[in-house]
Write a structure and sequence with these properties.
Elements lengths: L2 E7 L4 H15 L3 E6 L13 E9 L2 E2 L1 H9 L1 H5 L3 E7 L6 H10 L1 H11 L3 E6 L1 E2 L6 H9 L5 E2 L3 H14 L13
Parallel strand pairs: 1-2, 1-3, 3-5, 5-6
Antiparallel strand pairs: 3-4, 7-8
The protein binds flavin mononucleotide.
Flavin mononucleotide binds next to α1, β3, β5 and β7.
């Protein structure tokens, strides 16, 4: 049984729930999993796991500071094992014409982290956004941009991503899809 560490940073809990779901899915596939909250234990080490899954909510175009700091501090250790990264944002809350613009605007900061780690894969999930998460000014801007509040998590998409990781853990270089050169 391989140990997979699932590390996360969340402000309002939706990213943590995604991390828990990924861990549960990996466990169902027969892996041992350890969940780690990077906000509570910023000194967590990737350690000698078979793989690390690390994800963060995106706020103002960046991973939460404990998650970004963790990746920068542990970049060498992360390079020694297979890593999967995920980001949780609000793309689905934006009206369609703004979605690609929203994703592009936050790319530089998140892309730099991905470039540092070179994970097996990075996936962007939609999270949860509720009026109570925003201050008054934020709520006004949200309304002016025709954004929608809600829970936009797609559990089937999350499960499918975790299932792929479960299959690839322990396979050097990852599983190639049929037809991949
Ligand atoms: C103040 C604020 C800023 C946000 N900034 C971004 C952002 O720049 N890009 C994005 O995709 N989502 C952004 N979001 C949406 C959050 O990433 C989304 O709500 C996510 O599910 C929060 O995760 P959490 O519940 O784990 O904290 C923002 C949300 C808030 C409340």
């Amino acid at each position: 049984m391989s140990l997979v560490r699932v590390l996360h940073a969340s402000e309002h809990g939706s990213t943590e729930e995604i991390a828990r779901r990924i861990a549960a899915r990996l466990t169902a596939h027969g892996h041992r999993t350890e969940l780690g909250d990077l906000k509570v234990s910023p000194g967590l080490e990737p350690g000698s796991a078979a793989a690390v899954v690390v994800g963060s909510a995106i706020y103002h175009g960046a991973w939460l500071p404990p998650a970004e700091a963790f990746v920068r501090k542990e970049v060498a250790a992360l390079g020694a094992q297979p890593v999967w990264m995920f980001s949780v944002g609000m793309t689905a809350a934006l009206p369609k014409p703004l979605r690609s613009l929203g994703a592009r605007s936050e790319q530089p900061r998140v892309a730099r982290l991905i470039e540092l780690v070179r994970p097996r894969a990075h996936h962007r999930f939609s999270g949860v956004i509720l009026p109570g998460h925003l201050d008054r000014k934020g709520r006004v801007i949200f309304r002016l941009l025709f954004c929608r509040y809600g829970d936009f998590r797609n559990w089937a998409e999350i499960d499918a991503w975790a299932d792929r990781i479960a299959r690839e853990v322990g396979v050097p270089g990852g599983v190639r899809s049929p037809g991949t050169p």
